[in-house]
Design a protein that fits this description.
Elements (H helix, E strand, L loop, with lengths): L1 H13 L7 E5 L8 H12 L7 E4 L2 E4 L3 E4 L13 E8 L10 E6 L2 E6 L6 E3 L2 E3 L8 E8 L9 H8 L2 E9 L1 H9 L9 H6 L2 H5 L11 H6 L10 H7 L8 H6 L18
Parallel strand pairs: 1-9, 1-10, 10-11
Antiparallel strand pairs: 2-3, 4-5, 4-8, 5-6, 6-7
Length: 271
């Protein structure tokens, strides 16, 4: 699959297209078809070393004119997670005030300089994760899918990748991997928003409620902190509400005041 991606990118380059308008999106970083492998292959194709200077950081080689991705939010520099940029200059440590190698980048007109200690904030962006691509669009998108991505293959992930393409979409990989992604739905989050907006409180009342733990005498004895009660046992027993959860039924019963003693005058300060 990695070789097929390279073939597509080679054809793209031969046609004189802008390498920055071709974006490869993959679910995972590791593996033979992972983002790290694809970035290394595409960098050699679009921005070969050819005797020029490069800076090495962990397993990544940074070169002038490389396409880079910002990985974190940096409000001070006005660049944010998911922003794409280009390396405009590599400055050796002997020429910098920080006494560290520095990379100068351009993020849509915003020039940012990072010393080596901050290079964890960036990576190559010829290939990037589908997750990081959310909110962005590209002229042509290449989506490789293989079975080794299995634990990441879900319908919403594939949908996100496909909808990043503005003009052209190229799907590469194993048919069964695409089929698995289409068939597998991500876990639904139980927010009950529909029930809340429609006023179906009885549905919410039937949902499992967290259990309140009773503090027994044995547990009190095992505590190393002496507990002092400000109320007598009679006060507690008289004012204890048996239903510990605020429900519409509890409010309707009159046993609980939802305004907790506040009056209309107390709300005038907000008007």
């Amino acid at each position: 699959v990695a070789n097929l991606v390279t073939q597509v990118a080679t054809a793209w380059k031969k046609r004189g297209n802008n390498p920055f308008e071709l974006q490869v999106l993959a679910p995972m970083y590791k593996g033979m078809a992972g983002i790290n492998t694809l970035n290394a292959l595409l960098q050699e194709l679009f921005n070969p070393l050819e005797g020029r200077q490069e800076f090495n950081y962990q397993d990544v080689h940074f070169r002038q004119a490389d396409k880079v991705l910002h990985l974190v939010n940096d409000a001070e520099c006005n660049v944010f997670n998911g922003d794409l940029g280009v390396i405009v200059k590599l400055v050796p440590a002997k020429h910098t005030e920080s006494k560290q190698d520095e990379i100068v980048m351009d993020f849509d007109g915003q020039e940012v300089t990072y010393p080596r200690a901050e290079w964890y904030k960036i990576t190559l962006a010829y290939a990037m994760s589908i997750h990081k691509s959310q909110g962005s669009e590209f002229s042509t998108v290449v989506v490789p899918m293989v079975s080794s991505y299995s634990r990441m293959l879900e319908r919403n992930l594939l949908y996100t990748a496909i909808t990043r393409a503005k003009q052209s979409l190229i799907l590469i990989g194993e048919q069964r991997a695409f089929a698995q992604a289409v068939q597998k739905e991500s876990a639904n989050r139980k927010t009950y928003l529909i029930e809340r907006f429609s006023g179906k409180s009885e549905v919410l009342d039937k949902q499992p409620k967290p259990q309140m733990e009773l503090v027994t005498a044995e547990k009190k004895e095992s505590s190393t902190v002496e507990e002092i009660s400000l109320f007598s046992e009679e006060d507690i027993s008289e004012n204890l509400v048996k239903e510990p959860f605020l429900t519409t039924a509890l409010i309707a019963s009159g046993d609980f005041d939802p305004l907790i003693g506040l009056t209309e005058e107390d709300f005038l300060i907000f008007k």
